[in-house]
Amino acid sequence: MAADKPVVKMLWGIVLILAGLGVFYRIPQVMPEIETIEQFASISWFIRFCFYFLGILLVGAGLKRCRDSYQKFKGRGSKTSQ
Question: Would you list the DSSP string of 1-30?
Answer without folding.
Answer: -GGGHHHHHHHHHHHHHHHHHHHHHHHHHH
